[in-house]
Write a structure and sequence with these properties.
The protein is an alpha/beta fold. It contains 17 helices and 13 strands. The chain has a 5-stranded mixed beta sheet with strand order 1-2-4-3-5, sandwiched between helices. The protein has a 5-stranded parallel beta sheet with strand order 7-6-11-12-13, sandwiched between helices. β6, α9 and β7 form a beta-alpha-beta unit. It folds into 2 domains: 188 residues, Rossmann fold (3-Layer(aba) Sandwich), CATH 3.40.50; 165 residues, Rossmann fold. The protein binds NADPH dihydro-nicotinamide-adenine-dinucleotide phosphate. The site of NADPH dihydro-nicotinamide-adenine-dinucleotide phosphate (NDP) has 24 residues, from α9. The site of NADPH dihydro-nicotinamide-adenine-dinucleotide phosphate has 24 residues, from α9.
């Protein structure tokens, strides 16, 4: 079977050159699934894995727009429609200068398994642009979003492909994108999720990814008879996922002591209280400022600027029990993972997508760390997006409690699937294998049943 893994990886690397993040995500999944293919040769005969690795459709398009000074800019837009075996393509849009085809393909690929794990009928997709919203005026962001949707509207729709937010795409951007879609199509439909509450959005959608990552952590702890009460937690990022991760940690009696952005991080030994979190939300969501300002406002905090030459991130080198990476991919390398273990961290719940490099994952698994990979731990966001789609179809909004109860139930069910699958396939406690296998089986069976399409 190792030969099969190596041969398949050779094909993936040859067919998708210069896409290291996609190779990384593919290798992890293929290795987990080799356990399944040994028992189920029918998937191998039907080349299910080879088919899942090839996007159903990739769209790349020009996005021309004009800044406030009248200068013309040209960005590149993408939408990867990866797999629609169990529902319409579903996955976020990312606006960040680092966006390229390989990054979006890795995210779309992960999304297929994640969406399957939620138990809801959603296929996998991802998209975005190399546009950088940082430092742009609201009008510039609006013009960019309108230009982006002026092409994307041809390819998406409530029964075809339903994008949402991701890095750099929050409520403001979803609003402008939705407005342009509605104007071009002349229809009011649930084509995007993460919408405003008074025009089709769902309660708890902004909170869902962060809350879900903490619910997943609570489930992992409960499996050892523990709870979040009193746990010291390291959190990276300071955007949507990080903010609501801290909020739920606080609610469940834990203490978050770090937050970051791409310029640096703060360590607040006293803990990030409700009042301090409100400050961060205002800083990041309204003023769009830098996390450094937290340490200027609260003397209990120390700010450390990012240093790419250091070879590790000092944020992950503080005493704690739990860590919630919530910024971006590959933010925990082998050294960071060793530092985390040395500092006493025994639970990782990934709010971000693929934040841990493969060598780091090995460190966690070899040291008995409870390691919840992103495709399981951060699935709460897309799960509530799925619930937003249901509410849009019914034209009936649900209460906060109702959505939160669904979210809890779904995170519990994802945790159980991971535990059960890891056990069934002979690797008890390995949430990586559990998530990959659990996500795969449903999609693979649907593909078999739908024939060679
Ligand atoms: P936001 O744009 O709201 O926040 C992103 C945060 O991460 C910011 O603090 C940003 O800092 C930091 N960051 C982004 N890129 C980098 C980088 N290259 N290096 C260092 N820091 C960086 O995004 P989200 O909170 O929505 O997303 C965070 C992660 O969670 C991503 O991996 C995303 O894919 C994942 N995720 C998000 C979901 C959602 O519902 N939003 C759902 C599931 C997963 P700065 O402002 O300086 O760039």
């Amino acid at each position: 079977m190792q030969d099969y893994v190596n041969e398949l990886m050779e094909i993936v690397e040859a067919k998708n050159p210069a896409e290291p993040e996609f190779h990384q995500a593919a290798r992890e999944v293929i290795e987990s699934l080799s356990l399944v293919l040994e028992r189920h040769p029918e998937y191998r005969t039907a080349k299910i894995l080879e088919r899942i690795l090839e996007p159903e459709r990739v769209l790349i398009f020009r996005v021309p727009w004009m800044d406030d000074q009248g200068e013309v800019h040209v960005n590149r837009g993408f939408r990867i429609e990866m797999n629609s075996a169990i529902g319409p393509y579903k996955g976020g849009l990312r606006f960040h200068p680092s966006v390229n085809l390989g990054i979006l393909k890795f995210l779309a690929f992960e999304q297929v398994f994640k969406n399957s794990l939620t138990t809801l009928p959603m296929g996998g997709g991802k998209g975005g642009s190399d546009f950088d919203p940082k430092g742009k005026s609201d009008n510039e962001v609006m013009r960019f979003c309108q230009a982006f949707m002026s092409e994307l509207f041809r390819h998406v729709g409530p029964n075809t492909d339903v994008p949402a937010g991701d890095i750099g795409v929050g409520g403001r951007e979803i609003g402008y994108l939705f407005g342009q879609y509605k104007k071009l199509r002349n229809e009011f439909t649930g084509v995007l999720t993460g919408k405003g509450l008074n025009w089709g959005g769902s309660l708890i959608r902004p909170e869902a990814t962060g809350y879900g990552a903490v619910y997943f952590a609570a489930e992992m702890l409960a499996s050892r008879g523990e709870s979040m009460e009193g746990k010291v937690c390291l959190v990276s990022g300071s955007g949507n996922v990080a903010q609501y991760t801290v909020e739920k940690i606080l609610e469940l009696g834990g203490k978050a002591v770090t937050l970051s952005d791409s310029s640096g991080y703060i360590y607040d030994e006293e803990g990030i209280s409700r009042e301090k979190l409100d400050f961060v939300m205002e800083l990041k969501n309204q003023r769009r400022g830098r996390i450094r300002e937290y340490a200027e406002a609260y003397p209990s905090a120390v700010y450390t600027p990012a240093d790419a030459n250091l070879g590790y991130n000092p944020l992950w080198d503080h005493k704690a029990q739990c860590a919630f990476p919530s910024a971006t991919e590959n933010e925990i390398n082998e050294q960071d993972a060793k530092n985390l273990v040395r500092q006493g961290v025994y639970l990782i719940s990934e709010g971000a997508n693929m934040p841990t490099m493969p060598e780091g994952v090995d460190v966690f698994l070899n040291n008995g760390v409870m390691y919840g990979p992103g495709k399981a731990a951060n699935a709460g966001g897309v799960a509530v997006s799925g619930l937003e789609m249901s509410q849009n179809s019914m034209r009936l909004p649900w209460s906060r409690e109702e959505v939160d109860n669904h979210l809890r139930r779904i995170m519990k069910s994802i945790h159980k699937t991971c535990v059960d699958m890891a056990e069934q396939y002979g690797t008890p406690g390995n949430y990586v294998n559990g998530a990959n296998i659990g996500g795969f089986l449903k999609v693979a069976d649907a593909m078999l049943q739908q024939g060679l399409v």
